[in-house]
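ok trying this again, last paste got cut off
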Amino acid sequence: TAGINLVFPLGIDLVRKIDMRTFTIDVPKQEVISKDNVPMHVDAVVYFNIFDPVLAVVKVADYAKSTSLLGQTILRSVLGQHDLDEMLSKRTELNTVLQKLLDEATDPWGVKVTAVEIKAVELPDSMKRAMAKQAEAERERRAKVIAADGEFQASEKLAAAANIIGKEPVGIQLRYLQTLSEIAVEKNSTVLFPLPMEILRFFEGQVKKGKAD
């Protein structure tokens, strides 16, 4: 026929348009039992793109669904090999492991997995309460350690002060008089303060010394 004609080679049944931009798919919540036998529910998100449209069409019927299903399997398998503490404290490392494994598995499909991120780790209520009690006990332990350390340092300083005062008895008398002076500055109407005999002896000695001079 006249004009421009589009001729398809034999063997082409249909034309599929493949979007090669980055996509995200949610991995539904998976029931996982950790290495230390803690049951939980974990979900994640997968970031991927198509690097080979031909493989994405020829090698797999639905690359997005297949990637999601494979992500669920790998998520359960990897997390089941780790303790709860590792899941909570080493999430970045686990994300990297998940990304590498899923990327290797989807490579034959022309799918490039760029990132996998664990979204949430949901624990049973009983486990949450147990962890809260453990955290409270740890806080109390640290508070006691800090208090004990403070008392130890204070006792060391008191011992050092006692040693100095033992060598210089006049020092305690001067400290006593300084305390009286500080109380007087506060303008209290009446102050009752015990007067140690050492102070009286100190002044008595000073008087006798003056008379002798």
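PB: full thing came through this time. The longest strand covers residues 39-50.
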